[in-house]
Amino acid sequence: CTNNSDAEIQPARKGQITIGFSQIGESSRWRAANTRSIQDAARIQNVRLIFSVAGLSQQKQISDIQSFILQKVDVIAFSPVVEAGWDDVLRAAKAAKIPVILTDRAIRTEDPSLFTSSLGSDFISEGISAAVWTKNEFRKAPGPVNVVELSGTPGSAPAIQRRAGFLEGIDGDTKFKIISSRTANFSRADGKRVMAELLRSHDDIDVVFAQNDDMGLGAVTAIEEAGKRPGKDIKIATIDAIHDGLVALSNGKINFIAECNPLVGPQLMELIQDVFLGIPVPKRVDTRETVFFRENVDQYINDRKY
Ligand code: GYE
Questions:
Q1: Structure confidence at residue 7 (pLDDT)
Q2: What contacts 34, CB < 8 A, 6 or more positions away?
Q3: Closest residue CA from atom 8 of ligand 1
Q4: Nearest to 297 by CA among 247, 262, 261
Q5: What distance in Å separates the CA atoms of residue 100 and residue 93, rounded to the nearest whole number?
Q6: Residue 52's Cα: distance from chain center in Å?
Q7: Is this complex scored with an ipTM above 0.95?
Q8: Is 9 exposed, middle or buried (0-12, 13-18, 19+ CB in 10 A)?
Q9: R_g over Cα of the chain
Q10: Partner residues linked to 119 by β-bridges
Q11: CA distance 276 to 268
């Protein structure tokens, strides 16, 4: 793979596809696994990859995409940090006849012709799964059941859609009250800090819905430091299913995890090769995923490499 910041960029070999990929930045363990999967798959498929990392900045992602257009890459792929605000740069890609594939996160646009395909997880159903678990766990409780939400990057597709899915899954059941919803930016350190604040202002939290494992793991530490038992006094449902999350689930500190699969590299390379060859591709490709409980988690832990 070629890093965009390298002074010298490897020229493409004859017939080799060049793709420019703009990654969000390293917000979580999930993201690191996602980066590795894409880089490994490119190497295996002999795709020349110009890979840039945007430090969570949309401005930087836009300028990286502009630079891919100037370099005349064959295909542009990127994981958009937030949903809105991509139309101008994507119009420039379209004018240069460079197909664009969205991976992992999606965009909001009035013009769906601005991207060829979108590959990623169904964030709505991840949120629904967390809510369905919560409802089931508290089915015998008289209520109210007080939920706090730790949400991801404001304006990002997973933050917006996981919340929407959670509300859909709760389905108007007024027993469940989201007493606070705060962003912790998909980060473990922020999850701990925000949860500590929430614990200081609320002594009646029953459930944490953390939109990723890292924030949930931060919440575990904050709850322990506040002298309570995570997973028992306060239940925790999260999303992602990284190794550390599965371990906490197995130890009973997290209670439920909806999987979000970061290993999209192979599917992305297949899509890119089809697009390059002019083979029609679906507008939307979902990644395969499952859900984990304490009862089924142990058989998966050793195989989880991220
Ligand atoms: O859940 C989180 C990451 O976009 C689905 O981004 C992804 C999310 C993932 O940093 O851990």
A1: 37
A2: 23, 79, 104, 262, 263, 264
A3: 158
A4: 247
A5: 8
A6: 18
A7: yes
A8: middle
A9: 20
A10: 103, 285
A11: 12
Closest by Cα among 106, 54, 104 to 262: 104
Residue 244 Cβ inside 6 Å of ligand 1? The answer reads: no
Report which secondary-structure segment, H or E, holds 237. Answer: strand 235-240
Residue 32 CA to ligand 1 centre (angstroms): 10
Residues of the chain with confidence (pLDDT) below 70: 1-14
Mutate to test the pocket of ligand 1, among 81, 105, 119, 212 (most ligand atoms within 8 A of CB): 212
Q: Check the CA dihedral 236-149-218-211 and report its sign.
A: positive
- The pLDDT value given to residue 1: 53
Q: What pLDDT score does 206 carry?
A: 98
Establish whether residue 256 lines the binding site of ligand 1, counting it when its CB lies within 6 angstroms of any ligand atom.
no
Q: Please give the pLDDT value at position 8.
A: 44
Q: For every residue of 18-77, which 3-state class applies, written as one string?
A: EEEEEECCCCCHHHHHHHHHHHHHHHHCCCEEEEEECCCCHHHHHHHHHHHHHCCCCEEE
The three-point CA angle 104-34-126 to 5° equals 45
